[in-house]
Amino acid sequence: MSWVFKQAGYASPRTGWSPALFPIAKLVKAAAPGNVFGIYFPSLNRIAHCGFVEYVDVSWVGAIEVNTNVAGSREGDGVYRRLRHKRTV
Fold first, then answer.
1. Which tens digits make up the pLDDT trace of 40-75?
2. Measured CA distances, 76 to 8, 13, 47, 50 (Å)
3. Are 61 and 82 in contact (CB under 8 A)?
4. Which residues pair with 40 in a beta bridge?
5. Is the whole-model pTM more than 0.70?
6. What's the confidence (pLDDT) of residue 51?
7. HSE-up of 43 (CA within 13 Å, CB side)?
8. How many CB atoms lie within 10 A of CB 69?
9. What is d(CA 8, CA 41) in angstroms, rounded to the nearest whole number?
10. CB neighbours of residue 87 within 10 Å
11. pLDDT for residue 12
12. What is the rounded end-to-end Cα distance, in angstroms, of the chain?
């Protein structure tokens, strides 16, 4: 994600630490195409995975996620399209 931001000309974030993508001043309540979303992991007490919102359906978010895999792990091997329920992002 940081690489994408850098390519788009943004100065930050400059880290792979996903919470850095979510400063409080930029948080929104509902996903919209083009947004960056985060997934909160209670076991880590923080956002630990993120992606881009590609589209929003009634209950689902179509996402493009980085550092994931076919199984949807946050420890992945590439960039994949995923389908996430709205309540999880």
1. 899 999 998 899 999 999 999 999 998 888 887 877
2. 23, 20, 16, 12
3. no
4. 47
5. yes
6. 92
7. 2
8. 13
9. 28
10. 7
11. 77
12. 16
